[in-house]
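Deviations from the work plan: none for this task. Representative record:
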Amino acid sequence: MTIAGTKSGAGSVGPLRKSSGIKGRPGLVGWLMASPLVLVLVLFLVMPIIMIGTVSFWRATEFSIIPAFDFENYSFLFGSPVTYSVFLNTLKYALITWAVTLTLGYTVAYFLAFHVRSLTWQIVLFLLCTIPFWTSNIIRMISWIPFLGRNGIANSALLSWGVIDEPLDWLLFSDFSVILAFVHLYTLFMVVPIFNTMMRIDKSLIEAARDGGANGLQILWNVIIPLTKPGIMIGTIFVVTLVMGDFVTVRIMSGSQSANVGRLISNDIALLQYPSAAATAVVLLCSVLIVIGIFLRFVDIRKEL
Amino acid sequence: MHEKRPKSFYVLAGIFGLFLLFLYGPTITIGILSFQGPSGGLTFPMRGTSIHWFADLFEQQAVGDIWGSFWRSITLGLMVMVTTVVVSVMGGLAFRKHFPGSGLVFYLIITSLVIPSILISLGVGLIFNQLGLPVHWATSGFGSQLTWTLPFGLLIMFAVFNRFDKSYEEAARDQGASAWQTLRYVVLPIIAPSLIGVALFGFTLSYDEFARTLLTSGSYNTLPLEIYGMTTNVTTPVIYALGTLTTLFSLLIIAVFLVTVLVLGRRKAKTGSDAGQGLV
């Protein structure tokens, strides 16, 4: 392990401890207390990543995988036009979902933070938004079927209102339903951090802006949005990584008709093509980390907790 | 306080209401459809009402081993919950001490949170495979789920300790309390409500976890895996009945945790302890 600075980050946790307890060796005590955490992270996060990196250079036969060192998995991956279209599709899902969840999440958080006046109501409404997060994602996906199906509620309603003449096919098992499900599942990840930063805005700043003659929109644009940027960034990181790494939502909601990188990997796994799955996984991980790296330049997470 | 509400309030309140409808509507719909009559299908109209599909859940040939998977999920959820609470508290305390390498560990925690779940599944599966160990929900599945629950637990602990008033500990120390006594009688009672939050995350995230358990649970499925299997080959409302039951179970768990927090808060208010008053 490297020694990455004893007082790393924003150091918002206060000064170094002064005395008492097991004296003079806070590092050792700290390490002992962090050791279960480090153990779990090394065994189930670092080692798996290393393993995937290694296996991505291996060869596969029909029944097993053989240690090797060749770039065939990668050259196949980058040589296939499917790869590019699937990565593009993944980015498309991420971008659209991000835009929708940000708009929706921001509006909801704004309402909760600035328009709901009593703390009790804020807590109650906030809890109402978060409760679905603690229930099963798969069930929440499935529960769209009676809504969107060919004979579902949406189609019957539109038919009976005379808006359409025959049922719409693109409601279920389409890009539309995939993105709808993403928005349904992940908007919360925008609401929570944005609401959190909004609640920390000093209300006198807003009053000052109003006294200075700013109207509601100007206050929103020039005061509130800049101050909530960290929340937006954290929400963005959550949503983008969840969508980029997904494979279940796309499978269930597209009825196996659309692909993203996660599905590419899970298909390879189903065919026992582990080395090829590993190579795709490495590329996926790199793209996710690059995206995160870019976002992290705009926000110091430790300071925002 | 009695300032007139601006017009924008009603617009935003409308959007918020629609958002809640969007969140809960589908779930309520399958709740209704799970009472579909025996000849009913996956969509409206209802062909009578019955508890036929709930009864079906108790028949092996209709749904497979869902009760076994249910108990496995609960057991695993409890294991993950306890581990998450203990490890997060220890980790949170460790980070206050700025141990060497804490910056690196912090970035590992973030990585653990943002890494695509299928990588954990694949990587852990490969390691167990190459070592010749059998994958099992209580070993490889357990560890994989921790990589998802621990970051949430630790982020909560960071948030808690960033707002923690150190003078409580100093006061305890001045009174001659040992490090352990300070922790046991001062720090832990103050952070107890947050620990219930960590426990709630630990249990529910594990109970619903799917992607990281997919390749690491071995031959005995957890409930979400069982449900995932059903999505491909079950075309009757029995899957709605199962969905309704497991959602009700989740709601029950959430309610238990919320009530615990409320009761703790009330008891604290009653016994007149001002511990935690400094916490915002």
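The two ends of chain B are 23 Å apart (CA to CA).
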